[in-house]
Amino acid sequence: MQPNTPLPRRSFLKRAALAPAxxxxxxxxxxxxxxxxxxxxxxxxxATILFQGDSITDAGRDKGRYYPNDASGMGLxxxxxxxxxxxxxxxxxxxxxYNRGISGNKVFQLADRWADDCLQLRPDTLSILIGVNDxxxxxxxxxxxxxxxxxxxxxxxxxxxxxxxxxVRLIIAxxxxxxxGSAIDGRWAEGLLPYRKAARQIAADxxxxxxxxxxxxxxxxxxxxxxxxxxxxxxxxxxxxxxMAAAWLEALGVK
Length: 255
Hints:
Layout: H1 9-32, E1 46-53, H2 55-58, H3 78-89, E2 94-99, H4 107-112, H5 114-117, E3 125-129, H6 132-140, H7 147-164, E4 169-173, H8 188-205, E5 209-211, H9 213-220, H10 226-229, H11 238-251
Parallel strand pairs: 1-2, 1-3, 3-4, 4-5
């Protein structure tokens, strides 16, 4: 969809009516994906919040701008939406945000840079979205990894993290695809499923907040097509990034 192309009136009214329903569904979708004891909770009044992942998290950030709360260093994706919301909503809190997502990364590549890009920053809250490349690159880059490798590497990474930072609060976002995107074919439904299941189980085992992004985008498709939310099915649009941020904030009980 071209951003400046006007919608037909009927289509516009339909989307306008569905928008509140989509936002209203977020609390139920997030709650259903988490244990009852995983209660929404803001980071403490003085906190370091770190985002880790692949290109979805990276979102074109300027890697030379690595200081906290630097606008260019946040990228143009969901991390930007989250940080601007929290910094604007809670000026009395002392939040330090870092984005260390790197395009193309898989779990083992996070591990390769974890000491510098995570542990030395000593985050109080650590948010990770990783997994789509662990599957996608088996289709397009001759990568030989499997869902079992993904799960084992992910667990090892979090074990190392908890040993170094026992009080860190973990947020694990579900790897996802959006049906109808240009990069998505019939292999994805079955192929990504074990990675999604692994991420959910890892979140439960490590007491992490889990953000069910795949279910959220499925719900969003009731309102608008993949071309609106995530044109290639992997990299979200501005609207898709906003939706991801809204889900993340909902998971932390932020209004």
